[in-house]
Structure formats: structure tokens, C-alpha cells
Amino acid sequence: MALAELSLRDLRCIESAELKFQPGSNLIHGANGAGKTSLLEAIFLLGRGRSFRTRLNERLIRHGQSQLRVVGHSTAAVLQHTLGVEVSRGGGTRARVDAQNVRSLVDLATCFPVQVLDPDAHRLIEDSSTRRRRWLDWLVFHVEPGFTTSWSRYNRALQQRNAVLRTGQGELEIWDAELVKDGQRISEARGRALAALQPYWADVSQSLLDQDLVLSFQQGWDRDASLAEALNAAAPRDRLRRTTTVGPHRADIGIRIHGKPVRQVLSRGQQKLAAVALTLCQLEFLKQEHGIRPSLLLDDPSAELDRDRLDRLIARIKALETQLIITALDRDFDLFGTPDAVFHVEQGRVAAL
Length: 353
Ligand SMILES: Nc1ncnc2c1ncn2[C@@H]1O[C@H](COP(=O)(O)OP(=O)(O)OP(=O)(O)O)[C@@H](O)[C@H]1O
Ligand SMILES: [Mg+2]
Description:
Layout: E1 2-11, E2 14-20, E3 25-29, H1 36-48, E4 67-76, E5 79-88, E6 92-97, E7 100-101, H2 106-111, E8 114-117, H3 123-126, H4 129-143, H5 147-167, H6 172-209, E9 214-218, H7 227-241, E10 252-257, E11 260-261, H8 262-265, H9 268-290, E12 295-299, H10 307-319, E13 324-328, E14 341-346, E15 349-352
Parallel strand pairs: 3-13, 3-14, 8-12, 12-13
Antiparallel strand pairs: 1-2, 1-4, 4-5, 5-6, 6-7, 9-10, 10-11, 14-15
Bound molecules: adenosine-5'-triphosphate and magnesium ion (MG).
């Protein structure tokens, strides 16, 4: 899968731009603040319905404008899709695939799988569990049919249960039954996906960090109890806190070294490498086991890594044989080989070279 064409309007500092990408490697260069990362955000938005830099899509709308629009064409062998995303102030995010409004942003992800490695990658390790759940769920979604259906139903039931807890009106038990059915499915699917990923993780993390990092799945409730039992046991506490404190929405990924969380042990640069390894092992897994090759956005890939690590990372990324869209300050950036297409950005204006 690759992105062939991209056009955008009123995203961050970019008033309008059109780019034609190559299936191999593409370089976007320009000075600080020129709009390089903004272009990657536009691409990510097409495949994920959100940015990798902010939770709030409205922040992507150019100052003084009421709406942004991104349109792209993705290609895979004989398949072609046209994807479009619009974000309006106060009006949310709307997505279209092949001129049809899509029910959920999941349809975007199917037509244009995309991943990113950026200088904030370490936040996957440092921040709250939300990022790690999202990391896992993106993978699960690609390999477990029916996952997103269960996920949406679970979240609807969870909102209802939380409403009962907030208002004190209604029966908790009605929603518990719904939560249990889909919650178990979600958790089993996550567990299977993570188990299948383990050999890829062991290989990638060892090669980037020279250390054995242990990846574990924390399902979001007591390991020895069923979800039904856990919800039951948590009910008094949930009533007190007015929210559901156990379940798959509280799942996390543990990353440990010699039994200790990596956050406590590894340097910042090493945490970044661990985060990069998490993303990279998914890409290797998807390629090897499922023949899926997401486009990979690399925002300023040489930042913060020593030359030796960077070389190892580059070798593995090249071996993915996937579309690369790379940003750099320097026109001559060629760590991933001579780029097949080069763009220059200056004050939000994009030119193909
Ligand atoms: N909503 C917005 N409307 C207009 N401009 C914005 C908006 N959000 C951010 N900007 C501006 O867009 C510019 C481009 O930002 P971007 O992060 O894309 O630059 P960059 O080329 O990646 O720079 P760097 O090399 O420093 O990473 C910045 O000057 C920023 O202030
Ligand atoms: Mg940038």
C-alpha cells in the first residue's frame, strides 16, 4: 500500500499543496517551521482520522479558517482508493472513501495503513497507557476480523455504565452483561496479537538496544478473575469514583528489563529506541505474517540517535520495502539512499524538485 497523491487545504501553516509521491522513498526538506511535520500530519490524518501530535483535530485547522481538507489516492497492486478527511471548527471530523461517507475511521485505516516515527516516539513508553493501548489496537485491528465491531460495542456499553455511575440512576448489571461479552473478545484478541508479536519484538528490541526487554500484556483487571467477577467486585469502588475502574479500557503493555519498568531504568535515548522497536516490530510482523506494508512516515529520523543505532534502524527500515516519507532539514539527506522524489517546503509552500 502506498500513497500516490496528496492534496490539502488549510492545514496548519499550509494554505494549499499538492504532492505526487513515489512508492519508494520520498524526502520533504525545509527549514525549521517550514511545514514539514504538518505535511506528515496531513498524511497521517488520511489513514487514521487524527494527528500524531495532538488529540484535537481542530488544532490542525489553519489559523483564521473554519475547515481543513485533505484528499489522497492510495494504491496497492490493482486496488486504488480515494480518501478524504475534513475537519471543521465545532463540526468534528468527517471522512470519505471512494466518494462514500464512512461509518467509522476504521475504513480509512483499511484503505491506507500508515505508521509514524517522530522525535516524540519516546512518549509511547513515558506517557499513560492510552498510547500503548492504541499501539496494540492498531495492530489487532489489522489482524483480527471483528475486533473493531466488538470495540465499538464495548465502548458504547461502557459509556452507558459510566452514565449510571455518574447519575446514580439505572441498573449497573444490565450493562455488565454487554461489557463482559465484548470485553472478553477484545482482551482475547489483544492477547493473541501480542503473543504472535513476541518473536518480532525479541528480535527488533535486541538488535536496537542489545538488551532483553520483556513485553507483557496487562488486560485491565485481575488476572485470576473473569471480567464478570472483576466488574462485580469493583462495583462499590466504581460507585464511589463514578466511573468503571476495571476492564479492557484499562489495559496496558508492560515493558520491563531485569524485572523493572524500562521507564525507571533506561536513558531517554534508549526509551526512544524501545518505542521505535515497538513500532518497527509491528511493521515487520505485518509484512511477514500478513503481507501488509503500511507507509512509514519518518519525521526527522536522525534526531537523538547515535550513528551505530541509527545505522541498525536504517537497515531494518529499508528491509521493510515499504513506502517511506521522510522529513529532514537538509536537502542532501540520503541515509535511506537517494530519494525517489524530493519536495522543498518554505513557509507553508511546497515545491517538487
Ligand atoms: N493551526 C495553525 N495555523 C497556522 N499555522 C500553524 C498552525 N499550527 C502550527 N502552525 C505553524 O506551522 C508552522 C510549521 O510547523 P511544522 O511543525 O510543520 O514545521 P517543521 O517544518 O516540521 O519544523 P521543524 O523543522 O522545526 O520540525 C510553524 O511555524 C507553526 O507555528
Ligand atoms: Mg517538524
